[in-house]
Amino acid sequence: MTFSPELEARFDKLMRSYPPGRERSALIPMLLYAQDETGAVTSALVAEIARRLSITPLEVDEVVSYYSMLRRKPAGKHHLQICTNVSCLVCGGRELFEHASRRLGIGNKEVTADGQFSLEEVECLGACSWAPAMMAGYDYHHQMTPEKLDRLIDSLEKKHGRDAV
Ligand code: FES
Questions:
Q1: Can you give the residue range of the structural domain that contains 113?
Q2: CA distances to 11, 116, 165 from 158, in Å
Q3: At 60, which CATH number?
Q4: Do residues 92 and 57 share a domain?
Q5: Which residue, 50, 54, 70, 136, has fewest beta-carbon neighbours within 10 Å?
Q6: Is the previous residue joined to 57 through a cis bond, with omega within 30 degrees of 0?
Q7: Which ligand 1 atom sits nearest the alpha carbon of residue 83?
Q8: What DSSP state is assigned to residue 164?
Q9: Which of the listed residues 81, 82, 83, 130 should we mutate to test ligand 1's pocket, taking the one with most ligand atoms within 8 A of CB?
């Protein structure tokens, strides 16, 4: 499996960040960086990372299954994660998720037909003090309302010239 020179450089740096024999500690960041490039954690990617870290594909699969930010299927270009855990739930997180679902026409863990947006209901994002919280890609958005969510989606659509949903 071949990766971009930038990703190879990141892998090299990560592998050198840990003492000899402990390179497997680079597993999660390697998977995240690779996922950013490939769109999803495929079987081929699992095998390649396992080979580089001298661990078994099963050990990699176990980590991929555990962490929700690692995906087996590609997400949309803009991946929206909306928290519906307790703090966000009482502050409108459920309504926010349902609003996003209606606006985009997709359900949990689905991708819009044009591949631009995906939506996911998630557990606590660690931003309970600013509930309801959500993420668009790696960016946090706090104290969200349906109106703020609409503006966010509008701005992401404009950024990439997409027709309004
Ligand atoms: S409960 Fe939503 S960020 Fe913690």
A1: 78-159
A2: 34, 12, 11
A3: 1.10.10
A4: no
A5: 54
A6: no
A7: 2
A8: P
A9: 83
- Asked whether residue 165 is assigned to any structural domain, the reply reads no
Tell how far the Cα of 162 is from the centroid of ligand 1, in angstroms: 30
> Mind listing the pLDDT tens digit of every residue in the chain (165 residues)?
899 999 999 999 999 999 999 999 999 999 999 999 998 999 999 999 999 999 999 999 999 999 988 999 999 999 999 999 999 999 999 999 999 999 999 999 999 999 999 999 999 999 999 999 999 998 999 999 999 999 999 999 988 665 545
For the chain, give percent helix, strand, coil, nearest 5: 50, 10, 40
HSE toward the beta carbon, residue 67, CA cutoff 13 A: 14
